[in-house]
Amino acid sequence: MKLLLVEDNASDAEFLAASLRRQRATDVQLVTVQTLQDAVTLLCQAAEPPFDVVLLDLHLPDGSGLQCVDVIQGVCDTIPIVVLSGQDDEEFAVSILNKGVQDYLVKWEGQGRTILRSIRYAIERKRSELRMNYLAQFDALTGIPNRHSFSEQLNRATARARREGRKVTLLYMDLDEFKFVNDTLGHDAGDSLLKEVADRLRRSVRAGDVVARLGGDEFAIMIEGLSGPLEVEAVAEGLIKVLGEPYHIAGRQLAVTASLGITMFPSDNSDPQMLLKNADIAMYQAKEGGRNTFRFFTQRMHEELMEYHELERDMREGLVRDEFRLAFQPKVNLLTKRLQGLEALLRWTSPTRGEVGPATFIPVAEQSGHIVPLGYWVLDQVCRQITEWRAAGYPVVPVSLNVSARQFQLPDFHQRVAEAIARHGVDASLIEIEITEGLMMEDTGLAERCLDYLKSVGVRISVDDFGTGYSCLSYLHRFPIDVLKIDRSFIRQIGQGSGNEEITDAIISLARSLQLETVAEGVETTEQVDFLVTHGCHVAQGFLFGRPMDATGVEPLLGELRAWMTETTAIRRALAVGAA
Ligand code: C2E
Ligand code: MG
Ligand code: MG
Question: Residue 399 Cα, ligand 2 centroid: separation in angstroms?
Fold first, then answer.
């Protein structure tokens, strides 16, 4: 038995040591320290507490009273504590017997035998406390948390999620054939099955997730931070697969499946107890739906998921069937009123859905990975279109294209861009890549290398929807950016007296100080144009100048530009002649 004595008074310590020595108990080892700090150091040395009990004085150089107990408990809450009191504070010692202290000894009193008995009693008492604690929280059969502890953890998780604006997913699971196994193979077989199920569940989730047994063959899983039905589906399918693998029980191979009900906080309910009910209801729906499957509590969530899968399938087919095309939206120079550039925007006409907007299909393309081939197609089309216009004798203007995170993160993205430019023989400065702010923050090392490379090839880089993303602007210095596109939401506010004009003004000044160009997005009124010109933003894009149009729609604009350029060169020439 290893005892840690925390006592700064040398004679008190010696008295205790001497009393114990007189007992000639060979199995007792005593280590003495004078301060709480030293005790903490010793207790922290190993994962398992290296002592069986702590004998604790309550008047130490670095702590006194209940505080001493708290410190020891704080580093090791499984170790029994016997406090040492003087005659004058015995009452205090008694009063803290329930605060993590298992027994007390009055100094200079009692024989070694009494002391040893008190220590053994403290160890025993602590052991049964721990056992009771365990039983109150864990399911005795499977060793995973029980219903009581699960609801407590759910309460805490939902409170935390509310503060942090995150989601909590609750999955309620019931075995489809448990009763059959129990009835035909007996309770021992039933118990083995439940243990195996608990093990499989525990092994399939991540460290922070909670798996609990709610009773019978019902289990619950709580996961924090999943974003929506798609991620939840992946988890649910994973669980169903793992649980569906054969079991070897009572010398037989058994096939057992499970039904899962799923609900999410806060979408479905913000009361934790209601969440459990919801998930239970959804689980019954899964049973009715044919078992070995899962159901969301709300129809809406389920529909959302189904809609995603349908859209994804249609897109996949659409890619093969050539249903995508590009639209171009003009960017206009506000001083000359001439075309300054174009933005290429994806359009999808589905035979069954009609026109589908990018706001609907781009997120699905990103999640499914279709954005990668689609993105390269866009790049290729843009290059091809520029060469075509040039061949037809039109003046060329820079064309920008949108790049999403999924594409940008590919290790060979920059090479593919350079390759396409070279293959079509277009001037790299005619290609402009639009990226969003978030994209540069995700993996800045990678982003920096990629942008530096593109820059070295001659491609222009602009930040799309500027002002809506991160407030951290340091990336503007770090990355080789050419253009800021002021988000539509700021432009919309111009002339509405909401104070947002100041933001637009600030963005323009910021850009000017960094020698970046600005493009105003979503310009719809002449009032907005006046504001922009006055404040020094000279390029605009928006319905006022033209909606996104197909390539042939752009040609008249290019024609006008050509006429104007010829005219201005003629004037310039004339002026030059006149001056000579
Ligand atoms: P974005 O890059 O900010 O594109 C500008 C969006 O604003 C376009 O919507 C355009 O039609 C719209 N817009 C332009 N002028 C006005 C205006 O005056 N008023 C209003 N209310 N809207 C205006 P669209 O084409 O629906 O595209 C939406 C978003 O989809 C784009 O936002 C872009 O983030 C994404 N997207 C479009 N094409 C592609 C693509 O090829 N690849 C990727 N990754 N994303 C794309
Ligand atoms: Mg854009
Ligand atoms: Mg934009």
Answer: 11
On whether the CB atoms of residues 36 and 62 are closer than 8 A, the answer is: yes
What residues contact 27, with CB distance under 8 A and at least 6 apart? 1
Identify the burial level of 75 via C-beta atoms within 10 angstroms of its C-beta, where 0-12 means exposed, 13-18 middle and 19 or more buried: middle
As given in the structure block, the two tokens for residue 29 are 């080892």
More confident residue, 288 or 536: 536
Of the residues 270, 297, 324, which one is the last residue of a structural domain? 297
CA of 332 to the centre of ligand 2 (A): 15
Q: If you search the block for the tokens 């004058």, which residue do you land on? A: 88
Report the pLDDT value the prediction gives residue 528, as an integer from 0 to 100. Answer: 96
The rounded Å distance from CA 236 to ligand 3 centre is 36
**Which chain residues have CB less than 5 Å from ligand 2, an ion?**
402, 434, 464
Q: What are the φ/ψ torsions at residue 439 (nearest 5 degrees)?
A: -60, -35
Give the residue ranges of DSSP H helices in 392-428. 405-408, 413-424
Enclosing domain of residue 51 = 2-137
Give 486 Cα–ligand 3 centroid separation in angstroms. 8
Compute the distance from residue 165 Cα to the ligand 2 centre, in Å.
Answer: 28
Angle between helices 272-288 and 147-164 in degrees, nearest 10: 110
Ligand 1 touching residue 482 (CB < 6 A): no
Which ligand is nearest to the Cα of residue 345, counting in written order?
1
CB distance 6 to 54 below 8 Å: yes
Whether residue 399 has its Cβ less than 6 Å from ligand 1: no
Residue nearest to atom 12 of ligand 1 (CA): 522
Task: Quick: pLDDT tens for 80-101.
Answer: 999 998 877 888 888 888 788 9
92 and 160 belong to one structural domain: no
Q: Is residue 577 part of a domain?
A: no
Give the position of tokens 């009835």.
183
Those residues whose C-beta lies under 8 Å from the C-beta of residue 547, and which sit 6 or more positions away, are 329
pLDDT > 90 in the chain, percent: 65
**460 vs 31, 395, 414, 429, CA distance in Å?**
71, 18, 13, 6
Task: Quote the number of domains for the chain.
Answer: 3
SS3 236: helix
Q: Which atom of ligand 1 is nearest to the CA of 345?
A: 38
**Could you count the other beta carbons within 10 Å of the beta carbon of residue 201?**
24
Q: Is the pLDDT of residue 444 over 80?
A: no
* CATH code of the domain covering residue 410: 3.20.20.450
pLDDT value at 110 more than 80: no
304: pLDDT strictly greater than 80: no
Which CATH number characterizes residue 184's domain? 3.30.70.270
One domain for residues 502 and 415: yes
